[in-house]
Amino acid sequence: MAQMTYPSADSLPTDGWIVDPCVGSGGMFRAAVQRIRDLGLNPHDCNWFGIDIDPIAAACTAVNAIVWDLGPKVVIAQGNSLTSDWGLESALRERQSIIEHRNQVVGQANMIAAIRRAERLLRLHLAA
Q1: What CA–CA distance (Å, rounded) separates 108 from 124?
Q2: Considering only CA atoms, which of 44, 53, 50, 80 is closest in space to residue 63?
Q3: SS3 category, 5
Q4: pTM of the model
Q5: Cβ(49)–Cβ(77) under 8 Å?
Q6: At what angle do helices 55-67 and 27-38 cross, to 10 degrees?
Q7: pLDDT tens by residue, 44-86
């Protein structure tokens, strides 16, 4: 199905989104990423959005997105794709919040590491 959907590099979505409204564990994503690689393209350049009503299935897709190396632009949501609100906007907001928190924690960790290096260099200098 992925070969029929994406027969050439030009057939990829121009908006960059590959969407699966009933993602399950992500089997269609796996086929699409394999096809994208077969075409000599990088799946990291695509935006991926999958939604499933089953939270376990959505969690499986999230893990598989890492295993299959879909890239950093993946949004997996738990929700009902048969409703008018798929949850993409709220999933994007939640993702942004998580990224901001991660960046804050990494920044703090880098500051702590820098202070510890400076203290270690100071102790070495004072001991010499």
Answers
A1: 24
A2: 50
A3: helix
A4: 0.70
A5: yes
A6: 20
A7: 999 999 999 999 999 999 999 999 999 999 999 888 888 766 7
Q: What per-residue confidence (pLDDT) applies to 6? A: 77
Which residues on adjacent β-strands are paired with residue 18? 48
- Residue identified by tokens 């590959």 is 18
From 94, 90, 24, 31, select the one nearest 60 (Cα to Cα).
24
Sheet holding 47-52, edge to edge: 17-20, 47-52, 74-78
Bridge partners, residue 51, by sequence: 77
- List helix spans (H) across the chain: 2-5, 27-38, 55-67, 88-127
Whether the CA torsion 92, 93, 96, 101 is positive or negative: it is negative
**Are 104 and 78 spatial neighbours (Cβ–Cβ below 8 Å)?**
no
Read off the amino acid at residue 6: Y
Give per-residue pLDDT as tens, 15-46: 778 989 999 999 999 999 999 999 998 999 99
